[in-house]
Amino acid sequence: MLKTGGISLFLLLSFFYGIYSSGEKHLEAEHTKSVFVTEDTTSKDITLFFVGDMMGHEPMINAAYNSEKGGYEYAHWFQYIQENVHSYDYACANLEVTLAGKPFSGYPQFSSPDAYAKGIQDAGFNIFVTANNHSQDRGKKGVERTIAVLDSMKIIHTGTFVDTLTRDKNYPLIQEVKGVKIALLNCTYGTNGLVVQHPNVVNMIDTAEIRKDLKTAKDRGAQFIVMNIHWGSEYQRKQNSEQDKIAQWLADAGADAIIGMHPHVVEPMEILHPKNNPNKNVPVAYSLGNFISNQRERYKDGGIGVVLHIKVKNNVVSWNSWGYIPFWCRLGGSPRGYYSVPVSDWENHPERYNLNADEKSKISTFADDTRKLLLQSQEIRMK
Known about the structure:
The chain is an alpha/beta fold. It has one domain: Purple Acid Phosphatase, chain A, domain 2 (4-Layer Sandwich), CATH 3.60.21. It is built from eleven helices and 20 strands. It has helices at 9-21, 29-38, 58-64, 82-86, 114-122, 139-152, 164-170, 207-219, 241-253, 343-348, 357-373; strands at 3-4, 7-8, 44-54, 65-66, 71-72, 90-95, 127-129, 156-158, 160-161, 173-177, 180-188, 201-202, 224-230, 257-261, 269-272, 282-285, 290-292, 302-313, 316-332, 337-342. The radius of gyration is 22 Å and the shape is globular.
């Protein structure tokens, strides 16, 4: 056996590993090196990032138009978050517009320029969910053209489908991230009373169908299942009883995490426990609020990104921890646009944003409101 200074290398490494496993995080550099020698090589971490509603109100369409170039530009809207979004293994956004082509329009029946999807993609979001109450805004053409545009841009998406055959083949959406199969389910409470036209499919909140989808995901090898769900009451800062009921049902049925959209304001985050597995933790974020929107009123002028940390050890995949990042949506700047501003970055580096007095007041109010609401949840502060 090799020895170092009279102490066996085996004992030395065992000593350092014992320190590490006991919870001591601040090891000196030479100790850290020894720890890595004994670290389980099958252990890895995966980060999943989710943001809320990407809206497309008419003033947003107008603001994106570059008259000199005769086209629409969105890249600058995401300039302050792009580096951060690209750092995650998996980044998902809710596309709450159709890409139905001209004439472009905002509320109540959205159709945004194709460049909007490109701008979101370039910002680092590699997966879109499309099942929401505006999926059917432009009818059959809207559903099918949105899918075709996203496919042409090679943007991964789920929630709406050309027909049932396509859905059966591609749903649930399963992505392999660092060797782990992660399933994403997506559904909505409805489509504003507009009937989905045959043969198109917009996933609805149907527990019988969702139960089948959860089973299909597991049968196809999914190791972690996220439900991204469009639900709740608009502008209510606390989830309603129906959300509570559905969330518990999803946890009991096998969902590993639940991410909510639709109310256009941030709602609480909490941990649920399946009735048949009380030791399991299922994180639920009831509403992430607006990410990009022309809704300028208090509580509506921002949202949160949620980061899920997934731990893989000895081929066992489990939720490890999570946190939120507050973002405020600024209307203005140069060139004029709707900028997603990470709150903590503005607090640390206000010179980057050059906000005026009114904007400073509004972002501060949004930050305070959000932090008070999510007081029991961990905030991830950007540096």
